[in-house]
Model the fold of this input.
Amino acid sequence: MANQPRYKSIKRDILISVAFKQTRIAILEEGKLVEYMVDHESGRRMVGDIYKGVVRRVLPGMQAAFVDIGLPKHGFLHVSDVNYDLFETDYDNDDQGSGGARRKPRKFQAIQDQLQEGQEIMVQVIKEPISTKGPRVSTDVSLPGRLMVYNPFDNRIGISRKIDDNRQRARIKEIIKKVITRNEGVIVRTAAEDTPEDEFTNEYNSLKNLWRRVKRQSSQVEAPGLVYQEMQLIASLLRDVFNERVDSLVVDSKTEFKRIKDYLKIIAPKLTGRLQLYKEQEPLFTRYKLDDEIRKVFSSKVWLKRGGYIVIEQTEALVSIDVNTGRYTGDKNQEQTILRTNLEAAREIARQVRLRDLGGIIVADFIDMESRENQQKMLDEFRHLLKFDRSKTKAFEVSPLGLVEMSRQRVRSSLFQSMTELCPNCDGRGRVFTPEVVTGHLEMALRKLTAERKESELLLRVHPAVALHLMEQECSLLKQLENHTKARLRLRDDPLMRLDDFAVFSLPSKKQLNLR
Done:
């Protein structure tokens, strides 16, 4: 009989707020916001999508190729992301006890020896387009499930490091060895801990059937073209995040609640009891006091409880984070004051990195400490907290200058990059929210306002770019909002308004209403 889960030491909650044009998702740990995601109707995510592409250019000097997958920018394929099994199958019969054959050792193959211009290949998006770069793609296709990731071109068994019980790891490995066939591999996910054998078998068969459909679809699609589209945000969240480590999942839409419940009955019936429908008039995120927290995500300065603060700056090359004692003077022992500030900063940096979805190279400039022991205390705390991050992270030793360099897997733009754009009023030195995001903020403000008070008629003053966006791109939104708020809405463009700001007035009194 499987042991009971041992990992419910941190209270985790997922909140899903569904509006007309966007869905917002917040993940909380011990009541604190640690992840925030927005899924807008016009901004589909691409990671995991599979395409039939055409090689347009092979660059021996870069050991890379550009693959046309039917998008505005070609996919970038590095030689390290090319699976040799696509081009030859030469295996050793020794299965190493892994449930599959082992590929014979071979020398590195130059990309020009594997690919040629005009060649059609199947690729999967592994990184979203970021800034001026197109998506990064790989021929090493994988299909994620709730319990495992199926790798049709691999032959290894991997088990999540977060399953740290050696008996559990051994049990899972024995099950997988019986389940999978030759010349394929799987990576077992954290949610698989304590899972019975039949559930592994069912998911493996489901993923293998999905792979057969993908191959069949690939043979029918004309290149370049989409072969398989990864799940959208809520479905992938349920598959990847919602497990026995999560205490509750709260959603404020009856339609989405029913859809989620039906989906959970298929993939994880034991978790349906943790699903809750939020029925209150007050907006969900307002009830959990998240509105201010989300606004702070776009500020460069983050205050710490004791009076210190950190400053986060994003550049093309890296993210720099500076730690300062600020108003915190501590006691007579300066070293202890600095240690407390650095420990508090380490906790907040670990949270902000997840919350802002920062990626690539990150350099944190902690306050210098003379004691090597204190430096190690701070680094151990930082590394411990990074283990809760779903993205791959690695923090290196403290440098002689007190810097901690870390890397974090980047598969898409950060929240700051994806939800803001260059400001036309300051020649690109700052950023403002896009009209699409401003529209979403306006919608949330009206929902919150009308939940607190009744209004018969409201005047909305916005920047002309936002007004144009509302009229051309989201013309039905005002009507939907009128039906929801039970108030007549009048839209007026005002060139004196900031691009990412708006104002709401009560009519006929013309009194401006406080939206904060």
Residues 1-8, 86-107 have pLDDT under 50 and may be disordered. The first helix runs from residue 166 to 179.
